[in-house]
Amino acid sequence: MEVRVQRGAIQDISSELIVVNLFKGVSEPTGATGVVDRALGGAIRELIAVGDLTGEEGQTALLYPRGAIPARRVLVVGLGERERFGLETVRRVSAEVVRTVARLGVRDYHSIVHGAGAAGLDAEYAAQAVAEGTVLGNYRYRGYRTQDGQDKTVDTLTLVEFSADALPVVERGARRGQIVAESACLARDLANEPANRLTPAGLAKFAKSIAEEVGLACDVLGEKEMESLGMGALLGVARGSEEPAQFIVLEHGAVEEGRELDTVVIVGKGITFDSGGISLKDREGMERMKYDMSGAAVALATARAAALLHLPLHVVALIPATENLPGGRAYKPGDVLTTLSGQTIEVISTDAEGRLILADALAYAERYRPKAIVDLATLTGGCIVALGHVASGLMGNDAELLAALKAAAARSGEKVWELPLFDEYKEQIKSDVADVKNSGGREASAIVGGLFLSRFVGDCPWAHLDIAGTAWADKEQGYLAKGATGWGVRLLAEWLQSRVGS
After folding, report:
1. pTM of the predicted protein model
2. 355 is catalytic
């Protein structure tokens, strides 16, 4: 969908539907809502007086002006308690609004910028939050259904800003919000795709098309190139599949006006289907393992966002992509694999494959001499046990980088929680036959997974995000659609922008 901005007063806008808002506990609406209420002869105050409109977060009330103002419909949305109001509230209520508008069959509507008035939020960030919540809430995965009855969506939201001085700020926020949210929706699409449709080669082909569309450089290494480099861990995982592994490299902005830019590398786990390999998973829920490449989807989508936002950074996205399947050539528990870094790994479980392919990708990242590396992976069920589906696990070797990611998470609304990489946990992955083993058992499994990865990043500032619990939603909630969430794109985009001060 498209997010536009225009100058004007909301009560004067000719539209199929306009949106105003109300805090909980307010009996006399003020600001734009008060102006619309007076134009409607106190209709909003009447709803409040009889208890039909309380201002609870996400509550909506629909009014028909009948010529009192140019708009054909007025939708009032509740913002909840003023004391708890923030950008995340704006995202959630904007998602509720767009879904309500879609159910009404309205394709284009106008809205004030929630929070930018009396609520005191920065107008640019408020506009970004409205755009994000709207685009994310409007998302529907179309899939491969051939019957009629597809979910309705909206085509256009126009934000109406009264102040001429604030107009450029609102436009900037709305544009950024649309780019970032559309990128998150792209990540959702990729992770929702069936594994027979999105193979490693299919993911590489898609990456090339996105690169061409937005101006990224793209290179894809095949298995022969990986073998010559020594990527034995990635190729070991790939042996059980008939689909050849791919190593996808996307780059944005290596130089700008002749000057070399700081480099950051984002690494995304790209297991396009995970059966567990020889250490076969339980059949229940295995169909979801198409989303085991959510980290890859986020890395690709973040590179897209960086390009469209014209960030003055050299952003590299590395995506090791393969399937993890059993077969006559599949790697086995007890095998020893040699990685790109030269370190050897004893395979304890073939279902701990994500860290194996990331080991080679993280070692490859060092050739860019980056200022920071961040990897994302649906790595461990243990992270779900620890944090549920609310927050992602955050680990790393650099306090400044971890603090920056926490700050970006707070602004984006994508929650993280730091887990400790204490040396004592290293005992769990000591091997008798190799440098390290790929599984330390059930205890502290999310932490042990992070410690395993830390061996392959050298001295570079590095952070690991375990998104196993946040990459998929079982039901629609807030601005999340059922299915793949695209979690991490907004956080990383916020982090990248914070590095350049934009």
Report:
1. 0.97
2. yes
